[in-house]
Design goal:
about 350 residues, alpha+beta, Beta-Lactamase, Heat Shock Protein 90, five-stranded mixed sheet, 10 strands, ATP binding, phosphoprotein
């Protein structure tokens, strides 16, 4: 009949977790195959009879010596109570260290109280935890970056609106006053100076139109006064290409959404005019399940990519993502281009 120790060995032979048994002096009596392999040995004979502590647990992860009297792993031999650690390290045969979580318990042997130790190699677990932390840190950084970009966009919208208002209320009004004075002056000038007066009037009128165009490019007044739908209709009306607009927006979006969607449509329309060789453009704006869905499609040559220089597509994508939205570009060669964006309201 097998002894208790032989019976224990036969049981532990089938256990997938690394386990070893030490006698009262702390020397290894038995280690199952999983434990032997995990600590880098080929056969139990290479471990049997050796001091457990001085073979696999003799230094800390910092490289400092780990005195046996400070080690609690084999303490159940003396205390009779189980011991446990979730944050420890063992040493392989080649001297490399690996993180472990271990449990030890007293074990009655024929020549006195020994100890049985079971451990789990935490290398993969630690790597998974580290990857999770890095992923979470990356997610937080991305959220912070989007929040910072959104704040920048909000500031930009305010500056654009304020600058456009200043141009309209300041520079443009002064030019209008100048034009009125030029007309009055023209009536007082002799005939031979009327040509110069006409030139001055023309220059003043051109300057007023330039200021209006600049102000509209910075932040169109119609966007502030009448909203996104009217501003896009106005944009389409000024286009050299035929543009059809379908708009179904029951209420005005937040200012930052309204302004950035307008400039997205404007940039996409400009790209269609400049780069696509299109003959017509379609603009769709609709609200679906609390999301503003925008699509600008042309029938041009296609072949556009988000990273193309001179198109501003990458900036459009960044702008949409900063609003927690989704951006998609479809531009197969020869089949036109579709700029699609979804922005939460």
């Amino acid at each position: 009949m097998p002894s208790a120790e032989q019976l224990l060995a036969s049981i532990l032979e089938c256990v997938p977790q690394p386990v070893w048994v030490c006698d009262q002096s702390g020397r290894i009596l038995y280690a199952n195959p999983t434990a032997v392999r995990t600590v880098g040995y080929d056969d139990l004979a290479q471990l049997k009879g050796k001091s457990s502590h001085h073979t696999m647990h003799y230094k800390r992860v910092t490289g400092e010596p780990y005195p046996a009297e400070e080690c609690s792993m084999l303490s159940p031999r003396f205390t009779g109570s189980p011991a446990h650690s979730d944050d420890d390290w063992l040493i392989r045969r080649d001297g490399t260290m690996f993180p472990v979580s271990w449990w030890s318990a007293p074990l009655a042997l024929e020549d006195g109280r020994g100890v049985v130790v079971a451990f789990t190699d935490m290398t993969r677990h630690r790597a998974a935890e580290r990857a999770l932390r890095e992923h979470e840190a990356e997610r937080i950084r991305a959220e912070e970056a989007r929040a910072a970009q959104r704040r920048t966009m909000e500031t930009t919208v305010w500056i654009r609106r304020q600058t456009a208002r200043d141009l309209h209320d300041g520079v443009q009004q002064r030019l209008v006053a100048l034009l009125i004075h030029l007309h009055l002056l023209k009536e007082e000038l002799p005939e031979h100076l009327s040509g110069l007066a006409d030139d001055a009037v023309s220059e003043a009128e051109a300057a007023i139109e330039d200021v209006r165009a600049v102000a509209a490019g910075i932040h169109p007044a119609i966007l502030s006064s009448r909203g996104l739908a009217a501003a896009v209709e106005s944009l389409a009306a000024r286009s050299p290409l035929p543009v059809s607009v379908r708009c179904s927006i029951p209420a005005r979006p937040a200012e930052i959404v309204e302004a950035n969607v307008y400039f997205l449509v404007s940039e996409a329309l400009t790209n269609a005019i400049k780069h696509s060789a299109a003959t017509e453009v379609t603009i769709d704006l609709a609200v679906q399940d609390g999301t503003l869905v925008v699509e600008v499609a042309d029938d041009g040559v296609g072949g556009a990519a988000v990273g193309d220089t001179g198109t501003g597509l990458l900036g459009l994508a960044d702008r949409v993502l900063a609003l927690d939205g989704k951006f998609r570009l479809e531009s197969p060669p020869g089949r036109g281009t579709v700029v699609h964006a979804e922005v939460p309201l």
